[in-house]
């Protein structure tokens, strides 16, 4: 991607303006939708009826808002839980989100907005063990199925909280970007599913920190594909993931706070070198976690 596209996909501010893509927003009942500049990108806050919405309207992006407490959230015609006790809520836009999205809170008016397309690269990785690319061993396949069920339990966590309303920080103090969210993966020459993580190369053993307050929804030390894996629940179905860890310092059910050490960088599972694969999901939608961080990659 060009440098301007990198900035678009990484920089934002929560609580005081949020860097957004240059996507047009269609809101028939908007009270205030004037764009405000921040750096080389644009911030946009929408208000419609009793609620407001601020976010990155791009594929892999998100938006947060505040309305009335305990109201139904309807996104693209599908129920997505309730607003918090304070009326806070979050919605996410999948990697392949369609051009338009619609939000309805409670019995308020609908808010329609365009989702900017994100360009994705092709990433080729060779030299992986065959069983890490296309497993065939029945015993291994049974293990993978059991681990999938375990992960699904973690993904189903739904903390009644809104910790996502504050800015996130990077989970590593120092790193080199080695893979971006959404890239099409070709493993050992075989096309595979897109990469849903943001890869951060760093020495093995480097501490990994919680980027935001959360409940530990899953903490497993040695899964086949992920190696050491931690899932953090930031509220309302927003789950962040930390893969290939060499060590874990938290356990399932723990409460963690922003900046708290949760594990160490490793290269367990499907990895060719030490790095942290940082991922995020909002319910069933894959998001780019790097969009949540206040500061840009150095």
Task: Characterize the structure shown.
This protein has helices at 3-10, 130-133, 138-155; strands at 19-20, 36-38, 41-43, 45-48, 51-56, 62-66, 72-75, 78-82, 88-92, 100-105, 111-114, 122-125, 176-179, 184-187, 190-194, 197-201, 207-209, 214-223, 227-233, 238-245, 247-248, 255-256, 261-264, 275-282, 285-287. Strands 13, 16, 18, 19, 20, 22, 24 and 25 form an 8-stranded antiparallel β-sheet that branches. A 4-stranded antiparallel β-sheet has the order 4-5-6-9, with no helix packed on it. A 4-stranded antiparallel β-sheet has the order 8-7-10-11, with no helix packed on it. Strand 14 and strand 15 (190-194) form a beta hairpin. The protein folds into 2 domains: 3-114, no CATH class; 122-292, Glucose Permease (Domain IIA) (Distorted Sandwich), CATH 2.70.70. The longest helix is centred in the middle third of the chain and has 18 residues, at 138-155. It contains 3 helices and 25 strands. The chain is mainly β and 298 residues long.
